[in-house]
Amino acid sequence: MTSHRLPTGGRLDRSRRVEFSFDGKALHGHPGDTLASALLANGQRLMARSFKYHRPRGVITAGSAEPNALMTIGREGRTEPNTRATMAELYQWLEANSQNRWPSLDQDIGALNGLLSRFLGAGFYYKTFMWPASFWEKVYEPIIRRAAGLGRATTLQDPDRYEKTWAHCDLLVIGGGAAGLAAALTAARAGASVVLADEGMELGGGMLSDPASWPQLAEILAELATLGVRLLPRTTVFGWYDGNVFGAVERVQKHLAVPSPDAPIERLWRIAARQAVLASGAEERPMVFAGNDIPGIMTASATASYLHRQAVAPGKRTAILTQGPAGFTLAAQMEALGLEVAALVSLGNGPAWQGKAPLIRGIPGKAIGGKSLKSLQIEGGPRIEADAIAMSGGFSPVIHLACHRGARPVWSDARHAFLAPSEQDGLLIAGAAAGLSGHAACLGDGAARAAAALARIGLRAEPAFGPAPEDAVAQAPLGELGKTKAKKFVDYQNDVHAKDLTLAAAEGYADAELAKRYTTSGMATDQGKLGNINAAAILAKARGTTIAAVGLTTFRPFYTPVSFGALAGTSRGHDFQPTRLSPLHGWAKTLGAEFVETGLWLRSAWFPRAGETGWRQSVDREVLTVRRAAGLCDVSTLGKIEIFGTDAAEFLNRIYCNGFAKLPVGRARYGLMLREDGFIYDDGTTSRLATDHFYMTTTTALAAGVMTHLEFCAQALWPDLDVRIASATDQWAQMAIAGPMARQILQRIVEADLSNEAFPFMAAREVPLKGGIMGRLFRISFSGELAYELAVPAGYGEAVADAIMAAGAPEGICAYGAEALAVLRIEKGHVTHAEINGTVVPADLGMGKMVSPVKPDFIGKHLLHREGLTDPQRPQLVGVVPLDPATPLRTGSHVLAKGAAATLENDQGYLTSTAHSPHLGHSIALALVAGGSQRHGEEVVVWDGLNDAAIPARLTSPVFIDPKNEKLHA
Amino acid sequence: MASLIPCPHCGPRPKEEFTVRGAVLPRPAADAPVEEWQAHVYLRENPRGDYAEHWHHSGGCRRWLVVKRNTATHAVHSVTDAAEGRP
């Protein structure tokens, strides 16, 4: 392996060595190298195996369009497959590995696919794997999937963090080449706020490959910095979206050996720009000739970039193929550096040539070589010994972003290229992206475009550079070259060659979009950046029409691949969504609670005590303690909404299906909230604390939904009502104190008479607590026991809970969690969203009489009485008990008539909630069963398909304890 | 959809702060025939072109807004408070 690094030159820091490895081989480069340039400098031209034929491939570009040199870099959780070596900056101890090869890059068994290539042409999958149909899933797809793809993603956790941010500016400049720099300078001098983003590691674009322009580049960059322009190198603007918002990803630390934990590895920008200038440059077109993929062959601009930026020579003897003047310029530069140019092959009109290399007028016939180029056969001409080829087939403006919002590329006969509409709302195109050539012309155009863009938003700017002539004439795309039938690659990344496209055309898929799908040309990470123009030329010839008529496939975001990490930002793992903690969380934790996730909330589920070996033991104890003495449960997660206004009562009257207008001050009422289609939306108690002040509670699950619903009703439906609504869920710590001893315990901390006469069932009012704070006390019960709910300002929650626990110690009060709460409410036949599941109306739950027959209007009134919603055979709430008390019932089991087969037709309903009732000593369930309210006492079968069980059971009343509500009113 | 929505109360804000409910439909009168209610609840136009929708500035001022926009061009013509112009 020989070094191709020139002894001098380049934008490298030669004083520092950067060690790295490729396929385990230790190599070194310098700061300023990309992985691709460092590999080339080390003589490592073979960098990859191609996707389909496993052909040896080297690097073909020096930028983001690179289709070949894809490798896996990094290790462990930082392993990143399919990284373009041209975009990866070298850092100390970088590990790179080639892909899609076995056992090694050099000796790859998969290359046998090349021998089968006559069977692997366009449409191969579609034709070959048609029959038998059953083979597709079991045989073909697994095999194809194993063979497909390049790198392998790691399954380890990504150790780095990512972030998202916004930027707002007068002018966004996309691309930091001559046009972009001039645009940014023009705008910044005029006082505009400017963001300049460029995908490269250094700003300068094409100027970086032209040492003569380096002093000017340095001057411009210095002035931009002093003018406060936000310079974003390593930042790819990947999409243009509605509202002139651009998406960009900044690779903040991808180039560092040890990323700092104090900064993100990548940052996703959303840039809201009043105006933008697209100065994304142009892509050099490869030439389509036999063997055009042999390592050693690259574009002329890539050759120039490696030569000038990293002082890497493409080879010992370089043949230059050029359609326009670009190759002549490169040839002269190489000879000036003392490099040997084997031949300068001109396919069109070039300028006069005075160099040493022989000038040949002709076209390439065939490149010869295996893992490295050996020679080039000129069609009908000489064979040139060369180990490198630099090819220039003209330029295609990079117009992707300008077409992301629906604009179609338009063919320009003058520019021999597809151009985007040059003036769109919010976006102008400048420089090489508009088809211009030469730094001077691009500087002038960028300056003029920036001034024009700012004029659109009323800012005056003086162009920083004047107009200047271009340095080249545009060249037409060449299409396929040479007569040989050998493979001439159009799309390197997908191994699509010219014959695939002519075959597609012959088989009726000549439309650009169809040909893409039939051949895969223009797919994958490079999205046809290099190949599409040649594909269009080949299809045009095959169809006997023009390139303009063939057109290009649609450009869509993203311009280049964006990591999932950047798109996810901070929303991953624990931070995927917020965690809400109750004001009593610390209290529950101190008591050793086990917690359960309920939506965003962590709720205390049960409170294990020493000696208890399973959750059921704890829950049974908690339930029995509540039934016999008292318990305290955190119910702070319930939605709490304050409703104020002179029309608050009328508002609630329209919101709930039952009446609220006449609810007295100091009383609570259970309410059912319907949807406009008549089905129950949510339930809860609402208390009237003053004539114009109500306190509503909702279920935990729908707290946010109910708030939104109330706001909609108040603002959009009835803005004439005087009502104001505020969410107070987080402001109040709320606890249920339930059980026969609840009153006497509570009385010890409340400075108000809690006797049944003074504070009866459904009383609700503010009460002073001992110690001086005010609380809101409600005599309501979810458990079926004598019970209260006490709300105190959130900050006092834990202190009040501790006080109640201490006060109740003589009675043996216990903390109980969400599990015991669920058992208690099932025993009492109270419903939750397990029953209120969007398919039930009040009558289904036995609450039909709650629905006000007199109110003229409320949400849900008008469709509630439709046929079907009044059918007596609708599923209705019932209780279910097993005939054998030892048999547990399981939620989700279906109810069948005795002796009926388990079929859909025989299904009579299902169990919505089940629990072991420690009070009754057996399993109980709530169920929605057809006509269930009239079937209490009937024997049925509970069919549990998951466990293949058919359990004899009886339908009962859904109220298993205290059917006469004596406990409630005690 | 437009990336920035001009909230009449908060100014231009990212669309992620908003929640879309659907078409702006006047609620039928309380004594309207059931067919009218049926249509109100279940039937929706799906126009290609101008459309008025209720949007909630759920991550901002929590006001309900009427957003008039074009479903084909994504242009937002106007954003007003839902209570505006109502009794």
Short précis:
Chain A has 970 residues and is α+β, with helices and mostly antiparallel strands. In chain A, a hairpin with a 5-residue loop joins strand 40 and strand 41.
CATH topology of the largest domain in chain A: Ubiquitin-like (UB roll)
Quaternary state, please?
A: heterodimer
Terminal residue distance of chain A: 95 Å
The run of helices and strands of chain B is EEEHEEE
Number of strands of chain A: 49
The geometry of chain B reads as globular
* Sheet with most strands of chain B: 4 strands, antiparallel
Strand percent estimate of chain B: 35-45%
CA radius of gyration of chain B: 14 Å
Q: Biggest β-sheet of chain A: count, sense, barrel?
A: 8 strands, mixed
Domain FAD/NAD(P)-binding (chain A): 170-342
Domain Aminomethyltransferase C-terminal (chain A): 876-962
Family (chain A): Belongs to the GcvT family.
Pfam family, one (chain A): GCV_T_C
Give a description of the structure:
Chain B: InterPro entries: SoxD, SoxD_sf. The complex is a heterodimer of chains A (970) and B (87). In chain A, α6 (300-309) runs parallel beside α7 (326-336), α9 (498-506) crosses α11 and α15 (615-628) packs across α20. Helices cover 21% and strands 26% of the residues of chain A. In chain A, a hairpin with a 2-residue loop joins β26 and β27. By secondary structure, chain A is an alpha+beta fold. The N and C termini of chain A lie far apart (95 Å). In chain A, the strands form 12 sheets. In chain A, strands 8, 9, 10, 11, 12, 13, 26 and 27 form an 8-stranded mixed sheet that branches. Chain A has a 6-stranded mixed sheet with strand order 40-41-42-39-33-43, with helices on both faces. In chain A, strands 45-48-49-44-47-46 form a 6-stranded antiparallel sheet, with helices on one face. Chain B is mainly β and 87 residues long. Chain B has a domain at 18-24 and 48-87: Folate-binding fold (2-Layer Sandwich). Chain B contains 1 helix and 6 strands, in the order βββαβββ. Chain B has one helix at 34-42, and strands at 4-7, 11-14, 19-23, 50-56, 64-70, 76-81. In chain B, β4 and β5 (64-70) form a beta hairpin.
